[in-house]
Design brief:
This protein has 359 residues and is mainly alpha-helical. It has helices at residues 10-19, 37-67, 74-100, 102-118, 123-141, 144-150, 156-193, 200-220, 222-250, 255-291, 301-305, 331-358, and strands at 26-27, 33-34, 322-323, 327-328. It has one domain (6-291, 312-358). The strands form 2 sheets. It has a two-stranded antiparallel ribbon. It has a two-stranded antiparallel sheet with strand order 3-4. The radius of gyration is 23 Å and the shape is globular.
Length: 359
């Protein structure tokens, strides 16, 4: 992928995926992803090593909080360690899933690379991608004040454990940036097609090829989508609980907790919004084909527009980011998450006020 422009960030993301063993394969000169034995063994060894040291890392992380001079409440320590452990497990699950499905992932990356040679990200898509990358970098740099304040008092074992913890925790962040970049590329293809001449045969050919690619995209990253959405949402709820507990007990605003909650919410919404826009653009392309008087044989216009279980040809298919058959990534699902979070905040406030009255 040497010809891909580095300014768009997609090539940089792929290199990060290879560095973190999220992409355990080699990109050949013909822009084809190839699985090689030494890269597979290296990724497997790294996964086994991280899995074996996971209990030690969690134990040392709990010791880090005890070694600092900051008086942290039991609630904060419990939530921080639970969130840390959850991020660790999610990252290990992502690395293991990519290692097992490396051939399918390599085929998908090859298809995206070929698509990217014909379609380039617009400046708006490039801007959004780099904003998300910079947001992840800001999340990583938020740990610098902690290291400056407590780094000199920590032994080397705890510093090493903290470094491994940061490495594993940010695997999921790099993973989310990668799938976000892939969805931006797919979305850009739909956007550029709207500007071309509406030739029916060309539209049908593009719609069919992109539908197959997006279906493979969703199939390969189903587990990753599920872990990202559930993990980030649980972490957001945990940070909301810690924020409200701190606010009601000390009547202050913890900036660290609020920053973490805001960053996770923005990153989660970026992925959901990109998936929603891909589905909207796919439906618009399908409608456009129907407006050009394309109609499958034996179907009326109303039957062609409505969803059907029969194996019909394009454009009756539509892109759906259906994750493990449990939910679909779109705006309605995001509104469900927001409403659930608001109800959670109301319950916390009610519980805190009752405890304050009893005290």
């Amino acid at each position: 992928m040497s010809r891909l422009p580095h300014i768009c960030g997609l090539c940089l993301l792929l290199r990060f995926w290879q560095l973190l063993a999220l992409a355990p394969f080699k990109i050949g000169g013909s822009k084809v992803a190839q699985c090689q034995r030494w890269m597979t063994l290296s990724a497997a060894f790294r996964w086994l090593l991280l899995t074996s040291v996971a209990p030690f890392i969690v134990w040392q992380s709990s010791e880090i909080y005890e070694a600092t001079n900051v008086k942290l409440s039991t609630v904060f320590k419990t939530i921080a360690l639970a969130a840390m452990t959850g991020d660790f497990l999610i990252s290990l699950a992502l690395l293991g899933a990519h290692l097992l499905n490396r051939k399918e992932l390599a085929d998908l990356v090859t298809g995206l690379a070929r698509l990217h040679r014909r379609r380039r990200l617009s400046w708006w898509s490039t801007l959004f991608l780099w904003l998300k990358l910079l947001l992840s970098l800001y999340e990583l740099l938020c740990n610098v004040p902690f290291l400056e304040g407590a780094g000199s008092r920590l032994p080397w074992t705890q510093l090493a454990a903290f470094g491994v913890q940061l490495y594993v925790q940010h695997v999921s962040s790099v993973y989310a940036n990668g799938i976000f970049g892939g969805m931006l590329l797919i979305l850009e293809c739909y956007n550029q097609l709207d500007q071309e001449e509406p030739i029916l045969a060309r539209l049908l050919q593009k719609e069919r090829s992109w539908l197959i690619l997006v279906q493979r995209f969703v199939e390969v990253f189903q587990l990753g989508f599920f872990l990202l959405v559930i993990g980030n949402f649980i972490n957001i709820l945990a940070n909301i609980y810690a924020f409200m507990s701190y606010f009601t007990s000390l009547h202050g605003v913890p900036l660290t907790i609020s920053n973490n909650c805001l960053i996770m919410a923005v990153q989660l919404y970026a992925v959901v919004l990109a998936a929603h826009l891909c589905q909207v653009r796919s439906g618009r392309l399908r409608k456009r084909c129907l407006e050009l008087e394309y109609l499958p044989e034996g179907l009326t216009r109303e039957q062609a527009i409505t969803p059907t279980p029969f194996p019909l040809v394009s454009p009756t298919g539509s892109v759906k980011f259906c994750i493990l058959g449990l939910f679909t990534l779109d705006n309605s699902f995001w509104l469900f998450l927001v409403s659930y979070a608001m109800n959670f905040i109301v319950l916390i406030l009610q519980f805190s006020l009752e405890n304050m009255k009893q005290a």
